[in-house]
């Protein structure tokens, strides 16, 4: 790629890096925020959940808005909002201010991230160049999360407000660079006369309620009627959304895209893999801090090895994809994840870091092999006019996966905590660790279907090629025409 192409890629990757680092730093800083502002446990939990609620609730709408209203316009607008509310969070004097700031920041990320991904998939030609750009994008986001754990620990030692202030300057620099580098031709060539407002409202409502239901599971089941009611309301709104889209002449979401097997399998794979990854990290963080007494900074440094994918995703993974195809690489990554989480199941009270290291390293390797190729699979073969929607579907799966993974391990941990003392707590941790293992096993099975479909496609193409070659050899005129056409 030329210098300008690399510069554009770095700017787009910079935003996903900031998004990843923002989430990680907030996770590390929340205990200090809670202590300084005197927040209750419930309020502190909602400070974290507000971001997920805004992100998961509007990602589908954000992805489609990029297609309909212009990827450049959506990217620049919502990067500005992300910058502003990230900084405003640092001035918060109460829990409600932080909740509002985090919710709006999540909404901004829901529009900004799919726009950035669709800018990549439409700015680089299909093939190795676009695949490498997508893999660099995916690896950069993971690197932001891994480094954010360490940076968040360091900034929290100075003062938790710096966790909000620190991203402002780099985000402003990225905004200035993006204005110059993103071509204006990105605007849709064909302006739509109508916007599917009923579809947009029903989609956003359904996603918000679904995200709220998942978040409530994470916070416990003591008010299960409210959780059940929100889940049923989400299903009803989802049904209304499907009915609206079927009747709308210019739908927000073309339902046919949801019937494309490779796209659906890629999104399901992302949901399961990210759910397992974040659920595992959540359990390990609790194990190290609550049971072993490690500080937040020690825990962050211990987990930073999982960020090895930031190096491997743009270097090793593209070569493996070219050599074996992304379907097989995804399966290989899932198998590494299965081995990684299985190795940690017998964790003990006195495990050294050396005993934990293989699991942490393998989980980072698995991320390098799975996340980028899944991103390719989720957008491969999708029309350019729907790349934003495809990116929105993938990002929605990622956000719901992470929320479901954390909620599931929390629920299992709570059910398994039947006694008191270190041994009972350790037993509950081991029970919770079965959740990420089960998720990646299921993801492996789904990914094997993609490998089988890829083999079938190659076999069918080979048979068609053989038939065409046979017909050409039997018809000299056709053979001559074919040769002259080739010339």
Structure description:
With 487 residues, the protein is mainly α. The protein has helices at residues 3-37, 41-69, 71-88, 95-123, 128-158, 162-165, 168-181, 197-218, 224-247, 261-291, 296-303, 309-312, 316-324, 326-344, 353-379, 387-416, 422-474, 476-486. It is globular and about 60 Å long.
Structure characteristics:
disordered C terminus; single chain; Growth Hormone, Chain: A; MFS_dom; MFS family permease; transmembrane; antibiotic resistance; 487 residues; mainly alpha
Q: What's the structural blueprint in terms of helices and strands?
A:
Elements: H1 3-37, H2 41-69, H3 71-88, H4 95-123, H5 128-158, H6 162-165, H7 168-181, H8 197-218, H9 224-247, H10 261-291, H11 296-303, H12 309-312, H13 316-324, H14 326-344, H15 353-379, H16 387-416, H17 422-474, H18 476-486
Helix pairs in contact: 1-2, 1-4, 1-5, 1-7, 2-3, 2-4, 2-8, 2-16, 3-4, 3-7, 4-5, 4-16, 5-11, 5-15, 8-9, 8-16, 10-15, 10-16, 10-17, 13-14, 14-15, 14-17, 16-17, 17-18
Give a quick precis of the structure.
With 487 residues, the protein is mostly helical.
Instruction: Supply the CATH superfamily name of the largest domain.
Output: MFS general substrate transporter like domains
Structural class comes to: mainly alpha
H-E order: HHHHHHHHHHHHHHHHHH
Number of domains: 3
What's the quaternary structure here? single chain
Instruction: Give the low-pLDDT segments.
Output: 476-487
- With helices defined by DSSP (H or I, 4 residues minimum), what is the helix count? 18
Quick one: CATH class of the largest domain? Answer: Mainly Alpha
For the terminal residues, how far apart are their CA atoms?
A: 29 Å
How would you state the average pLDDT, rounded? 83
